[in-house]
Write a structure and sequence with these properties.
- The structure is a single chain.
- With 613 residues, the protein is an alpha/beta fold.
- The protein has 20 helices and 23 strands.
- The chain is globular.
- The N terminus and C terminus are likely disordered.
Length: 613
């Protein structure tokens, strides 16, 4: 791959889409990356989103699905979650390119005078910025090894012909010429619908899509045809003839039991050979080793004993809004040899107002909740459905149903406990009741109330276990601390913690100051856990997230066996005295250290520039 004395040439695979959105370009790009990894190549990924938003952070899940969070705090498109899960890599915020980012970078240069004397235009300034960005980010290692990757898989969001995609199409056309033949491969994912009236695949939409692609200066090497059924040779021959793509380079992506089958589907049709030939890599790599991945896909298909999880949220009509949570539940269910069944419960349907207005809807929601083996309340924003989530948490706590609350779901558990056990009937979060006199959940000290984008507590942060034998510490392998990804503006009020802990609620995980509550557990419950962070963002096929694994194990009667594996290993409880932090001051917060317990006593600074972590 690399000649002596020469710099290694980066190889690029571009994945585009045609006809309609939602064809599964992200899964296709991820599967291509996995297939190339199986050929012993190091792979990285870039997602291009043509919208003007700088990032996905301020977009509604109804609009764009979940917001995926990276280690560096980047709020990005959900497809980067697919890349990380399939390839087991850690991407950066720069691996998600948006129109907003590109224009902002060009305008910033113009303001500094970098283009002094020139008229700044889409061509060449925007298109050059796109190409430079791709080349720079493609060289960043994402697999924990030194040196640049071998192949960069680029997914262009949207469909061919979209107005907002035009600068990217032009830039990528120039880029294919810039990197040269043998370093660029274009895979076009297109729909081949099967009409019920005639019962046969129709190729015309793909023909038009490829014609549009060619008219824009991009020539596809491979066609990946999405269809409900496998395409026969006659359909492929027709596509080859009218789209000018070799017959052996037309791949049929038909419906399969689960998406883990897509890499083997591509391999069986020798898609990797077509890609490797286009990139001049065929002679320097091995045959793809996919056996462990295929075994996992087949094992998933054979599961039959169900574990039923109630997902109580506000975006239940769009599963992509909770995509990473669903993947984390799936990974944990497969590890526990259970077939995952999701009971979607709209939080508002559990509320008293719905019971009065639409008793049938309320009854159906309660039936779904009561028939579940476990309850999950995922993260979210806004007050709609909050009372319904509190009702669900209370039901799970009182009836000993395994419960996992994530971010807002943890805050909900704390509010419910304070209301029901401490008797603080009016306590709430200041997110929903800004004037609450005794809030359980408060706005974080360093948060911004004037800017929404990128102002939350984002990315990988450290949590220290406070109790050695708690369930969460055992599930994480009795480590002293863990690093998980965050996305929140509100957090448990530290002034309320002593009352809550005295009443039986245990905050088993805290940040390094001891003032931020990260994990809450109820020891008297079979499994009642809340996490301020989002453990779903780091789940992997074959390596399920610890807290989700505990939830499914508890729901299927396997938790005791799982926890016994941790017996004999003692966790080290974190002491700030050993951390190197000052025992007198942290940020702008004066603290008093309890030498005996090693815990922090103190108060949050109320200013926005107060406590910084």
């Amino acid at each position: 791959m690399q000649k002596a004395g020469n710099k290694k040439e980066m190889k690029y695979v571009l994945v585009t889409g045609g006809v309609v959105s939602g064809l599964g370009k992200g899964v296709t790009a991820s599967s291509i990356g996995l297939l190339l990894q199986a050929c012993d190549l190091r792979v990285t990924s870039i997602k291009i989103d043509p919208y003007l938003n700088t990032d996905a952070g301020t977009m509604s899940p109804f609009e764009h699905g979940e917001v995926f969070v990276l280690d560096d705090g980047g709020e990005v498109d959900l497809d980067l979650g697919n890349y990380e899960r399939f390839l087991d890599i850690k991407l950066t915020r720069d691996n998600n390119i948006t129109t907003g980012k590109i224009y902002q970078s060009v305008i910033d240069k113009e303001r500094k005078g970098d283009y002094l004397g020139k008229t700044v235009q889409v061509v060449p300034h925007i298109t050059d910025a796109i190409q430079d960005w791709i080349e720079r980010v493609a060289a960043i290692p994402v697999d924990g090894k030194e040196g640049s990757p071998d192949v960069c898989v680029i997914e262009l969001g949207g469909t061919i012909g979209d107005i907002e995609s035009m600068p990217f199409i032009e830039a990528l056309g120039q880029f294919s010429y810039r990197v040269g033949a043998g370093n660029f491969c274009l895979i076009h994912v297109s729909l081949v619908p099967v009409l019920n009236v005639v019962g046969e695949p129709k190729t015309k939409p793909t023909q038009h899509s490829v014609r549009g692609l060619r008219s824009l200066g991009l020539i596809p090497n491979i066609l990946a045809c999405r269809s409900t059924m496998e395409l026969d040779i006659n359909v492929k021959e027709k596509l080859s003839r009218f789209c000018h793509v070799p017959l052996e380079n037309i791949v049929s992506l038909y419906d399969v039991p689960n998406i883990w089958h897509i890499p083997s589907l591509l391999r069986d049709q020798k898609a990797h050979e077509a890609i490797l030939k286009a990139l001049n890599l065929f002679s320097v790599v091995r045959k793809p080793a996919l056996d462990p991945w295929i075994d996992m896909a087949l094992r998933c298909d054979k599961l039959h004993e169900p574990v039923r999880v109630a997902m109580v949220g506000k975006y239940t009509c769009l599963s992509d809004a909770y995509l990473s949570v669903l993947k984390a539940l799936l990974h944990a269910s497969v590890a526990c040899r259970r077939k995952l069944v999701i009971n979607w419960v709209s939080a508002t349907d559990l509320e008293t107002a719905t019971a009065l207005e639409s008793p049938e809807i309320n009854r159906a929601a309660w039936n779904s909740l009561k028939s579940a083996d476990a309850v999950v309340v995922p993260g979210g924003f806004g007050d709609r459905g909050v009372e319904g989530k509190i009702i669900a948490a209370k039901y799970a706590r009182e009836n000993k149903i395994p419960y996992l609350g994530i971010c807002l779901g943890m805050q909900i558990a704390v509010i419910e406990y304070a209301r029901s056990v401490l008797g603080l009937k009016n306590t709430n979060s200041t997110e929903f009741d800004p004037n609450n006199k005794n809030p359980c959940v408060i706005f974080m000290p360093e948060g911004s109330k004037t800017h929404m984008g990128g102002t939350m507590r984002l990315g990988s942060r450290r949590t220290y276990f406070q109790v050695a034998d708690c369930k969460s510490a055992q599930l994480y392998g009795n480590q002293t601390f863990i690093d998980e990804r965050h996305r929140h503006r509100y957090e448990v009020n530290p002034d309320m913690v002593p009352q809550l802990e005295k009443a039986g609620l245990s905050f088993t995980g805290k940040d390094e100051t001891g003032q931020r509550m990260e994990i809450v557990e109820l020891h008297s419950h079979p499994y009642y856990v809340g996490a301020q962070f989002h453990p779903e963002f780091k789940t992997r096929p074959g390596k399920p997230s610890a807290l989700f694994l505990g939830l499914i194990a508890a729901a299927s009667g396997q938790l005791d066996v799982l926890l016994k594996k941790s017996v004999g290993t003692k966790a080290n409880v974190y002491s700030p005295l050993k951390s190197g932090l000052s025992p007198h001051r942290y940020g702008n917060v004066k603290v008093k250290v309890n030498v005996k317990s090693g815990s922090f006593d103190g108060m949050y600074c109320k200013k926005n520039n107060g406590l910084h972590v």
